[in-house]
Every structure is written in C-alpha cells, then in structure tokens.
C-alpha cells in the first residue's frame, strides 16, 4: 500500500502548529522531523515542506510526522533566534516546562507530544536571518549516540560534530540534547542561511532526509550513505567583547589556524579598531554572523575543532 499523507494541526502551548503525517504501508519506526524551531530559517522549512509532500505514494515502512514551522509566532513576526513573546531561544529551552514562559511551554509540549515516543528525531536548521554557515550535522553524547551518529552520517553533510555536556558543548537545552538524554537518537542538521531559500541548501536537506529514511530501514537505500565526512568533537563560539561594526575576514568552511585573525570590530564611523578577533584553535569556520551590527557579547562565529 503506498504511503498516505494527512494534514493535522497540533496545539502546542496554545499555538496551532501544522503537522504533515505519513503512514507507510507496513510497520516500522516512527520518525519525527522538525523545522522552524528558529523563525527565519527558511531553507530548512522549505526542505521539510517539499520532502514531506514527496513521500505521498512512495513505499515506506513505518510512520513519519513533520512540522515544517514549529515556532509559528517567530515565523509570523520574522523574528530571528527567539520566541517573540518572551525573547527566549526555543532551542535552549528543551525539555521545557509546563508552567514556564511561552518558549519553555512550547519546548515542553513539543517534547511531550512530538519527541517522546519517536524512534528518531531530525531537527532541520540553517543559519538564521543574519547567519551564513558551512553545512553540518550534530548529535549529542548519550545512550543512543551510535544510532544518532549513523543518522548524522546518513544525512550526508560534510561535517559531523559530536557534542558532550560540559565546556566543549556550545549550547544546552537543544532538541537533540533533550532527546539524547531520553535515549532517542537525534540530530540537528544545518544547511542554508541569511533568510534565503537557497535551492542548493534545500536540496541538501531533502537528500539528507531521504538518507535518514534509508538508514532507519524505512525505504530502500538508493545510494551509499555519506562518505568523505569529517568528524569534529568540539564547538567553539566566539562573542564580541565590545559593540560595534563587525567584519569577518573568513568564510564558512574556511580552515583557520590557532592565533589567526578572523575578523575585526571597529567603531561605527570606521575610525577606531576596537577588537581583532582571533581563532583560539586550529578549526573550521562552521557559521558566522553576516550582519555588521553586533552588540557587546553578541555572537560572532562558531568554529568546529577535532
Ligand atoms: Zn536554528
């Protein structure tokens, strides 16, 4: 029996969130796919919309449910990074709280209704409105990490970062970290950015999601799993020490040496150099802030190191 698609609306923290469900013709795993945890990450949303629809009529074992735009208020407000109601980054709030602010409640309801009970989770992201990035996937240490690593490899992006709790993990409270703690294999996959629907990035996500289906045994594998992947074990995020005009001198994907100058912050009139930003370790530029406007303590770049 070919796969049937159905539309549904989930109520999460009082918000109406669209869900696309696909029921395969035979039993198998339950895969959950999220996009739009951040409200202006359009390439990953576009990919999940396209990919989920492409399952209609295909042979599928098991079930899939996809949320193309989770953070609906941020999408509608064109608000990068945060949920507009409380200014919190949803991907720092998992597994959430039933009695917290809107981002914490949205994380809680998403975790309870969508992540719990899944056999695998893919959370598709890209750079937000003012971020460019080198495509990569990440997964978290934990009881399900070997299966999570398989999913990351199957997604086929050129870099895979393993995150451990502690100082080498850039962020806590992410979808993948909360899933990992619950023993659910999960990845965050990043391709695209800058508020654009770049066809190349959309295609990377669509092909990555097909790779995940094959890796879970939900479809026949049509091509070999990703080869030539570089595995990294450390994320280094660099922040501005002063507010000003930010100019990176590197691009996503560049390899940088320890001590290399990778950007500068100057005064708004261009007269004063306020800070030279230096790579603390030999690493790869995974993402960077493209907007010249940076606040003191604003995020500038993310590096990945072995
Ligand atoms: Zn994101």
Describe this structure in words.
The protein has 306 residues and is of the alpha/beta class. The protein has two domains: 4-231, Zn peptidases (Aminopeptidase, 3-Layer(aba) Sandwich); 234-305, OB fold (Dihydrolipoamide Acetyltransferase, E2P). The protein is 22% helix and 34% strand. The chain has six helices and 18 strands. The strands form three sheets. Strands 1-2-4-3-5-9-7-8-10 form a nine-stranded mixed β-sheet, sandwiched between helices. Strands 6, 11, 13, 16 and 18 form a five-stranded antiparallel β-sheet that branches. A four-stranded antiparallel β-sheet has the order 15-14-12-17, with no helix packed on it. A hairpin with a 6-residue loop joins strand 14 (261-266) and strand 15 (273-278). The mean pLDDT is 95. Bound molecules: zinc ion. The site of zinc ion (ZN) has 5 residues, from loops.
Are there runs of 5+ residues with pLDDT below 50, and where? Answer: none
In the CATH hierarchy, what is the superfamily of the largest domain?
Answer: Zn peptidases
Helix/sheet category: alpha/beta
Helix content: 10-25%
Distance between the termini: 46 Å
What is the makeup of the main sheet?
Answer: 9 strands, mixed
Strands, helices and their partners?
Elements: E1 4-12, E2 15-23, E3 26-35, H1 42-54, E4 61-67, H2 72-77, H3 102-115, E5 120-125, E6 131-133, E7 136-140, H4 145-155, E8 159-163, H5 175-181, E9 186-190, H6 199-215, E10 230-232, E11 234-239, E12 244-248, E13 255-256, E14 261-266, E15 273-278, E16 283-289, E17 293-294, E18 299-305
Parallel strand pairs: 3-4, 3-5, 5-9, 7-8, 8-10
Antiparallel strand pairs: 1-2, 2-4, 6-16, 7-9, 11-18, 12-14, 12-17, 13-16, 14-15, 16-18
Helix pairs in contact: 1-6, 4-6
The structure holds zinc ion.
């Amino acid at each position: 029996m070919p796969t049937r698609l159905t539309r549904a609306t989930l109520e999460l923290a009082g918000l109406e969130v669209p869900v696309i469900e696909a029921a395969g013709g035979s039993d198998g795993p339950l895969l959950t796919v999220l996009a739009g945890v951040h409200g202006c990450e359009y390439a990953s949303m576009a990919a999940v919309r396209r990919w989920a629809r492409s399952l209609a009529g295909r042979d599928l074992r098991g079930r899939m449910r996809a949320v193309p735009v989770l953070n609906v208020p941020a999408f509608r407000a064109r608000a990068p990074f945060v949920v507009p109601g409380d200014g919190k980054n949803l991907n720092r709030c998992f597994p959430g709280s039933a009695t917290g602010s809107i981002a914490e409640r949205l994380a809680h309801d998403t975790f309870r209704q969508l992540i719990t009970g899944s056999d695998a989770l893919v959370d598709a992201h890209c750079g937000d409105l003012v971020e460019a990035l080198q495509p990569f996937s990440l997964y978290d240490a934990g009881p399900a990490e070997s299966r999570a690593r398989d999913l990351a490899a199957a997604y086929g992006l050129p870099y895979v970062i393993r995150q451990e709790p502690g100082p080498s993990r850039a962020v806590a409270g992410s979808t993948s970290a909360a899933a990992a703690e619950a023993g659910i294999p999960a990845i965050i996959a990043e391709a695209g950015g800058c508020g654009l629907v770049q066809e190349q990035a959309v295609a990377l996500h669509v092909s990555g999601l097909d790779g995940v289906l094959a890796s879970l045994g939900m479809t026949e594998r049509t091509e070999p799993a990703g080869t030539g992947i570089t595995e990294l074990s450390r994320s280094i995020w660099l922040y501005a020490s002063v507010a000003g005009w930010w100019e990176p001198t590197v691009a996503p994907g560049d390899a940088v040496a320890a001590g290399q100058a990778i950007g500068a912050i100057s005064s708004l009139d261009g007269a004063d150099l306020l800070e030279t930003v230096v790579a603390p370790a030999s690493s790869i530029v995974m993402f960077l802030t493209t907007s010249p406007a940076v606040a003191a303590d604003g995020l500038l770049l993310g590096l990945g190191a072995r």
